[in-house]
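stage 2 :: seqdesign
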C-alpha cells in the first residue's frame, strides 16, 4: 500500500479514475452495473516525469544521485561549515551552474512531453454505434498460379549439336558426310561440286555468325593455346553450333585484329574481316554478321528462328527445309535457320552509313537501329537449319507432378517453337498422354481469310466444349480434373497479340474474357513464341482475375526479368545466361527441382508459423 502511494506521488498523478466501464457489443448497462471496482489503470497516456509542484525536489534528487554532483555538494558544505582558506564560491558556483542548466533542460523536455500527452488524451475518439460483428477472410498468401520459363528452367540449358539440314538433306554429325556424301531420309545421295560449295558455305556461316570467344590459358610467360579450344559465349546455342561445325571439319579458331579466323577441312586458315554485328534480340529473334572475304566479297550471314528467317528468304527455298525443321521440333530439338546474301560494294557503303548514323543517334536510337536491321536482313538465300538438343533438368517432371497434386496450376511461357515446347511439356509431364490439346496458334487461325473471325469461332468452340465437360457445381478443381477429360491450351505470341489488341464490336464478345475462361478450365497452359513483354502481360492478366490470385514466376535469363517483376513472388535460377533473373527476384534457387521443397515444405511451415504467430498476438 505504501509502495503504491509512493509511486503515485513520484508519478505525479493528480487524479485517479475510480471506476471504469467497458461496453461489449454496445449493449446498454443497467444502473447497478454502472460502477465497477477499479482494478486496472485508465487509458490515459502519461509520458511526463514531473508535475509543477514536484519538479524541484524530484529533479534535485535525481541529479544528486550522481556521484560527481553529490561529491561536490559535500565539498561545498564542508567549506561552508569549516573555516578554510579557500572560498566556498570556488566549489559552489560550478556546482550550482551545472545543476541549474540541467534542471532547465530537463524541465523544457518534460514540458514538451506534457503537451504531447494532452494532444493525445484530448483527441476525439470515434466509436461504432449499432454495429455488428463481421467475419472477414484474411489476405490470401498461398500461391495459385506458377509461370515458368522452359530453356534453362525446365531444361539444363546445356546444348548439344544433333544434326543439321543443308538444302533439304540431313546430316547427323559425322565429318565424312560433308565429303560429298549426305544422309537423307531415303537412299544415300552423292553431291556434285555445287552442293559441296553449299555445304562449305553453311559451315562457314556457323563459324562466323556468332559472338563466341576463345578462352586462353594464362601461363607464366603469357597466354598459351591448348590443343582443345575452349569456347565462351552468353548463349549456349552458339557454342553448340560452333562445336557442331567443328565435327564437320570447320573450326573457329578466334578473332585477331578484327579478323575472324576459320580452319577449313584442308587445315587452311581462312580470315574474314568482321565489319558489323547485328546482335540478337527477343523481338527480331535473329542475329547477323557482315564480313569481308580475302577476295573482297562482302557477305551477310544470318541465323534465327524459322518464323523470323522464312519471311525474309526466297519462297521457293523454304519447303525443303521447313519439313526438317518441323520434324526436329516435334522431336524436342531447338531449331535455327541459316541464311546469307551477297552485298554489293555500293550497297554496303549505304548500309555502313545508315548503321553509323543509327548508332550515333541521341534520340530513338533503338527504333532507328531496329529499322536499319530490318532493311538489311531482307532478300536472303536460305542455306539450311540446325537441330540442338537441350536435356530436361533432373526431377523436373516429378516437381511438376507434385505441384499439380498440391492444386497449383503451372503455365509454361517460352520463346521457343511450338513443337519443341510441346515435346518438352510432354517430357516433363505438364501434358499427359490423355490430355486433349486446344491450339490457338497462327496455323489454326490462318485457315480463314479473316483471322479475327476464325479466332472468335475457335474461342467460342473451346469455351462450349470446356463448359460442357466441367459441371457448374462448386467442387474443387482437382476433383474435376480427376473425373473429367483433361484439357491443355497452347497459344503463341501472334495469337495472344491478336486477342489483346483485337477490335471489339457488337458481334464479337470480349476475346480477353473468353480466353481467360478457357484458361481457367485447362489443367495446363503452354505459351510459345513469347516476347519478354508478352510474358509480363500474361502474368498481369492473371493477377487481375476475380479473387486476385497469387502468382509466382520462375526463370533464369534476362528475358524472364519482366515476368518475375510482374508476379507477386519472383524466383530466379542461377543459370548459364547470367544472373539478371536471380538479382531481380525475391528468392534464388540453383535448380527447378528446389521449387518443390520451397513451396510444399518451407512455404507450408511458414504458413503454419504465421498462423500461430497471429493467434499468439491476439492472445497477448
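stage 2 :: out
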Amino acid at each position: 500500500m505504501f509502495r503504491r502511494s509512493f509511486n503515485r506521488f513520484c508519478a505525479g498523478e493528480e487524479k485517479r479514475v475510480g471506476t471504469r466501464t467497458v461496453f461489449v457489443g454496445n449493449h446498454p448497462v443497467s444502473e447497478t452495473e454502472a460502477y465497477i471496482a477499479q482494478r486496472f489503470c485508465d487509458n490515459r497516456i502519461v509520458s511526463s516525469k514531473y508535475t509543477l509542484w514536484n519538479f524541484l525536489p524530484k529533479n534535485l534528487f535525481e541529479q544528486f544521485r550522481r556521484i560527481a554532483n553529490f561529491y561536490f555538494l559535500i565539498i561545498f558544505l564542508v567549506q561552508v561549515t569549516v573555516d578554510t582558506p579557500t572560498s566556498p564560491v570556488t566549489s559552489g558556483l560550478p556546482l550550482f551552474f551545472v545543476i541549474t542548466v540541467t534542471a532547465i533542460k530537463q524541465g523544457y523536455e518534460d514540458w514538451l512531453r506534457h503537451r504531447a500527452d494532452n494532444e493525445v488524451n484530448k483527441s476525439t475518439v470515434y466509436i461504432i454505434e449499432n454495429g455488428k460483428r463481421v467475419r472477414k477472410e484474411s489476405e490470401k498468401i498461398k500461391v495459385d498460379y506458377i509461370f515458368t520459363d522452359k530453356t534453362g528452367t525446365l531444361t539444363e540449358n546445356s546444348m548439344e549439336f544433333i544434326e543439321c539440314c543443308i538444302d533439304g538433306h540431313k546430316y547427323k554429325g559425322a565429318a565424312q558426310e560433308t565429303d560429298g556424301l549426305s544422309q537423307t531420309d531415303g537412299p544415300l545421295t552423292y553431291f556434285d561440286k555445287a552442293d559441296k560449295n553449299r555445304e562449305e558455305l553453311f559451315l562457314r556461316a556457323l563459324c562466323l555468325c556468332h559472338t563466341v570467344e576463345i578462352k586462353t590459358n594464362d601461363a607464366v610467360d603469357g597466354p598459351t593455346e591448348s590443343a582443345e579450344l575452349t569456347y565462351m559465349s552468353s548463349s549456349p546455342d552458339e557454342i553448340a553450333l560452333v562445336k557442331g561445325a567443328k565435327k564437320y571439319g570447320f573450326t573457329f579458331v578466334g578473332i585477331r585484329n578484327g579478323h575472324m579466323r576459320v580452319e577449313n577441312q584442308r587445315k587452311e586458315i581462312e580470315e574474314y574481316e568482321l565489319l558489323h554485328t547485328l546482335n540478337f534480340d527477343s523481338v527480331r529473334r535473329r542475329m547477323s554478321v557482315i564480313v569481308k572475304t580475302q577476295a573482297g566479297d562482302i557477305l551477310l550471314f544470318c541465323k534465327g528462328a524459322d518464323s523470323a528467317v522464312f519471311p525474309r528468304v526466297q519462297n521457293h527455298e523454304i519447303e525443303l527445309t521447313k519439313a526438317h525443321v518441323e520434324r526436329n521440333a516435334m522431336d524436342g530439338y531447338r531449331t535455327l535457320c541459316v541464311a546469307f546474301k551477297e552485298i554489293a560494294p555500293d550497297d554496303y557503303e549505304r548500309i555502313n552509313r545508315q548503321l553509323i548514323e543509327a548508332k550515333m543517334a541521341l534520340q530513338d536510337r533503338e527504333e532507328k537501329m531496329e529499322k536499319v536491321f530490318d532493311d538489311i536482313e531482307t532478300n536472303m538465300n536460305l542455306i539450311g537449319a540446325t537441330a540442338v538438343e537441350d536435356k530436361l533438368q533432373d526431377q523436373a517432371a516429378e516437381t511438376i507432378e507434385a505441384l499439380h497434386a498440391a492444386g497449383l496450376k503451372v503455365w509454361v511461357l517460352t520463346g521457343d517453337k511450338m513443337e519443341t515446347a510441346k515435346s518438352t511439356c510432354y517430357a516433363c509431364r505438364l501434358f499427359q498422354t490423355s490430355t486433349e490439346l486446344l491450339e490457338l496458334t497462327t496455323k489454326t487461325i490462318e485457315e480463314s481469310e479473316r483471322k479475327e473471325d476464325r479466332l472468335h469461332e475457335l474461342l467460342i468452340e473451346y469455351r462450349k466444349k470446356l463448359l460442357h465437360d466441367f459441371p457448374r457445381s462448386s467442387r474443387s478443381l482437382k476433383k474435376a480434373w480427376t473425373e473429367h477429360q483433361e484439357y491443355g491450351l497452347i497459344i503463341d505470341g501472334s495469337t495472344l497479340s491478336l486477342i489483346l489488341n483485337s477490335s471489339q464490336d457488337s458481334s464479337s464478345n470480349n476475346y480477353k474474357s473468353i480466353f481467360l475462361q478457357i484458361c481457367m478450365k485447362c489443367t495446363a497452359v503452354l505459351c510459345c513464341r513469347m516476347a519478354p513483354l508478352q510474358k509480363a502481360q500474361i502474368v498481369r492478366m492473371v493477377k487481375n482475375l476475380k479473387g486476385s490470385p497469387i502468382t509466382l514466376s520462375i526463370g533464369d535469363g534476362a528475358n524472364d526479368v519482366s515476368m518475375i517483376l510482374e508476379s507477386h513472388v519472383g524466383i530466379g535460377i542461377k543459370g548459364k545466361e547470367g544472373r539478371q533473373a536471380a538479382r531481380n527476384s525475391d528468392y534464388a534457387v540453383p535448380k527447378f527441382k528446389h521449387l518443390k521443397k520451397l513451396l510444399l515444405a518451407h512455404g507450408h511451415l511458414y504458413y503454419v508459423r504465421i498462423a500461430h504467430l497471429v493467434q499468439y498476438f491476439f492472445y497477448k
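stage 3 :: structure notes
- The CA atoms of residues 493 and 534 lie 7 Å apart.
- The chain has three domains: 2-121, 143-150+393-619, 158-389.
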